[in-house]
Amino acid sequence: MFKKIKAWAKNLKRQIFILYYACKDHRVPWYAKVFAASIVAYAFSPIDLIPDFIPILGYLDEVILLPLGIMLALKMIRKDVLSDCEVKAEELMRNGKPKNWKGALIIILIWVVITVWAIMKIYPHFS
Description:
It holds the Pfam family DUF1232. By secondary structure, the protein is mainly alpha-helical. The protein is 73% helix and 0% strand.
């Protein structure tokens, strides 16, 4: 059973890398790029929609929502583009993950803005 889970997780990681390269491909329509980029950003983000400390529900996004989003994003992209991205993803998995500090900074800034906005809404006397 552990081998099946490990294989499933590796395949999920490969699909995220495929979407990563699809976001950069000029043949992918803009709406598919936006959706795929959102999925990739969410997958790499340390912040979950449903926090992991919540029993059972905490892992719902990793087990159901993320794979569902990946599946939908992959369906929006043409097969020939996916094949090209698949080759790049396989090469990437052999050589190691990319380090995109600009993307990480953007994600962190978005979460900071959302957090500050939420705090200002909850505690209006701070603003």
